[in-house]
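User: Could you go from structure to sequence for me? I need the amino acid at each position, not a summary. Structure tokens:
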């Protein structure tokens, strides 16, 4: 398994953060790594993410959707040969809401794709900081 994760505490209600996270078509307005998002966040919905790092698009399915708490975007190949899952988790803590974003890659073909994935940690860190700035400036 290969995983990347970022966590940040945001001083805002979970509902406010959730509204920003689920308004995926507006990600390019504040998320520095994303150029376009198609689709909508909702259980079973398809979302296609375009980034500035690749001409390839990243289609995902919203496989878990618990309002104000947890959302999972999943993608992969048949038979579990390669899977990716990005999880957004909101947890109340002292001082606000901890928002954790984690992506895990797994499957038999992971060794073949690992080099193409590269180090995504800087993009996760940038996402967390940008989300905090967007939410806290919107209050």
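Assistant: Here is the amino acid at each position, in order:
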């Amino acid at each position: 398994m290969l995983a990347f994760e970022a966590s940040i505490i945001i001083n805002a209600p979970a509902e406010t953060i959730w509204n920003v996270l689920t308004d995926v078509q507006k990600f390019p307005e504040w998320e520095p790594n994303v150029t376009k998002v198609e689709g909508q966040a909702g259980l079973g919905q398809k979302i296609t993410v375009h980034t500035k790092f690749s001409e390839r698009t990243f289609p995902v399915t919203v496989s878990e959707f618990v309002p104000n708490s947890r959302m999972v975007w999943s993608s992969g190949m048949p038979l579990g040969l390669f899977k990716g899952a990005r999880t957004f988790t909101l947890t109340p803590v002292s001082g606000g809401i901890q928002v954790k974003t984690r992506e895990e890659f797994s499957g038999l073909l992971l060794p073949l794709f690992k080099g193409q994935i590269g180090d995504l940690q800087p993009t996760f860190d940038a996402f967390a900081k940008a989300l905090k700035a967007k939410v806290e400036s919107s209050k």
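One structural detail worth keeping in mind: Residues 2-137 form a domain with the Alpha-D-Glucose-1,6-Bisphosphate; Chain A, domain 4 fold (CATH 3.30.530.20).
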